[in-house]
Design a protein that fits this description.
This protein is of the alpha/beta class and 299 residues long. It has a single domain, classed as TIM Barrel, CATH 3.20.20.20. It contains 9 helices and 8 strands.
């Protein structure tokens, strides 16, 4: 297990070898921008199905402060069904190619659980695979990540998206998720994936009740024991709607509150739809936690 570096944020700063120089996990949580090129995602489905519009959206997110852009071509909302690899490829590859061409230094990840799609996305310019299944849906994913020397996000999920919200139950949700991710991490390492290229995601909203989600966010620091950075995807999800009684389009304030809470409780990376607002909220929260103002020239 890689020893964490010292961090002034209260989070251990695990090395994360994504991109040419790697990522600094010792400052504010890094922001992974959500770019769904799908017709049916729960919040932004249909907005970015046109590749040109999707690329412009990705570039804007980078301008707004995103540390990376996560391109997904298959909705994994509760109740969703998988699409064929050919259709997913048609959605993501042109966007990744064009985004990489327009912003060659930008870090791009592909949100997929299919090794075939991940392989083509890496050819197109992606550097990270974001696998919601934690290597359980496609047995060849770990070997692909190792062979391509790709970054890898391992997420916890219970069943497949179509069935994951059917009576989710755990003996202890925090410990059960930690055990799943421990196993996923072990399988990735056994396949030859570099430990410093792996991040872990507890899978908020993926086979969990409201209480499960709240417990996991409250105990994100439990996952630090696994020795890898923790990614949390909270943006505009249904647990926020359950707390506030609103629809995805009205969940910006709730998402910002969840992002700050996740940062406080140990998240190293946050996967978000609203980049500018999240970056600003985190900047304020981190300055307050540190007790010092960032050197921005403003007072």
């Amino acid at each position: 297990m890689t020893a964490p570096q010292q961090s002034g944020t209260g989070r251990p700063a695990f090395p994360l070898a994504w991109g040419p120089g790697g990522l600094d996990t010792g400052g504010r949580p890094l922001v992974m921008a959500v770019l769904n090129v799908t017709p049916d995602s729960f919040y932004d489905g249909g907005r970015w199905v046109d590749p040109a519009a999707a690329v412009e959206r990705g570039l804007q997110m980078l301008d707004d402060g995103a540390d990376m852009v996560d391109v997904g071509g298959e909705s994994t909302r509760p109740g969703s069904h998988p699409v064929d690899s050919s259709e997913e490829l048609e959605r993501v590859v042109p966007v990744i190619e064009a985004l990489h061409r327009r912003a060659p230094e930008a870090l791009i990840s592909v949100d997929t659980n299919k090794a075939e799609v991940a392989d083509a996305a890496l050819d197109a310019g992606a550097a990270v695979i974001n696998d919601i299944s934690g290597l359980t849906f496609d047995p060849s994913m770990a070997a692909l990540a190792a062979r391509r020397d790709a970054g890898l996000v391992l997420m916890h999920i219970r069943r497949r998206p179509a069935e994951m919200q059917r009576d989710p139950a755990y003996a202890d949700v925090v410990e059960d998720v930690a055990a799943f991710l421990t196993d996923a991490l072990s399988r990735a390492l056994a396949a030859g994936v570099d430990e410093e290229r792996i991040a872990l995601d507890p899978g908020i909203g993926f086979g969990k009740t409201l209480e499960h989600n709240l417990a996991l966010i409250n105990r994100l620091d439990r996952l630090h024991r696994l020795g890898r950075p923790v990614l949390a995807g909270l943006s505009r999800k249904s647990f926020i709607g359950a707390l506030l009684g609103n629809e995805p389009g009205a969940r910006l304030a709730g998402s910002l509150g969840a992002a700050v809470a996740a940062a406080v409780h140990g998240a190293h990376l946050l996967r978000v739809h609203d980049v500018k607002e999240t970056v600003e909220a985190l900047k304020v929260a981190e300055a307050i936690a540190a007790g010092t103002a960032p050197d921005s020239g403003e007072r």
